[in-house]
TrEMBL record:
Residues 15-86 form the Transcription regulator PadR N-terminal domain. PANTHER family: PADR-FAMILY TRANSCRIPTIONAL REGULATOR, TRANSCRIPTIONAL REGULATOR RV3488. SUPFAM superfamilies: Winged helix' DNA-binding domain. It comes from the Bacteria. This is Transcriptional regulator PadR-like family protein. InterPro entries: Metal_resp_DNA-bind_regulator, Tscrpt_reg_PadR_N, WH-like_DNA-bd_sf, WH_DNA-bd_sf.
């Protein structure tokens, strides 16, 4: 399985976690932050990012703010109260998944979560 396929299933969780950490971000900023954090291992395309952002907005997890920057309108995304709760839930699920995968892949190594 390619790494990108693994990451794709986690895209919403990645976006939500970044927004939890940074408050509000615009699309390009999200793509660059992911690239920076993963040292170029993960690249989020606009074709994947914006549909995910729009879906999370429609689901009530994100609010949008418009701001004028250098004469251009920039769209910032931030978590709603519901989005914060969903992020906590997703992070718990992800931690459980990682722990279970680690137990399968290397049962002798115990992670301290």
């Amino acid at each position: 399985m390619k790494k990108q396929q693994l990451y794709k299933g986690s895209l919403n969780t990645i976006i939500m976690k970044l927004l939890e950490q940074h408050g509000k971000m615009y699309g390009y900023e999200i793509t660059q932050k992911v690239k920076e954090i993963t040292q170029g291992e993960m690249n989020i395309t606009e074709g994947a990012l914006y549909p995910a952002l729009h879906k999370m907005e429609a689901d009530g997890f994100l609010d949008v703010e418009m701001d004028r920057v250098d004469g251009r309108i920039r769209k910032y995304y931030k978590l709603t109260e519901s989005g914060v709760k969903e992020t906590v839930s997703r992070m718990e699920e992800l931690e459980n998944f990682v722990r279970n995968m680690q137990n399968i892949v290397n049962p002798n190594l115990k992670l301290g979560y």
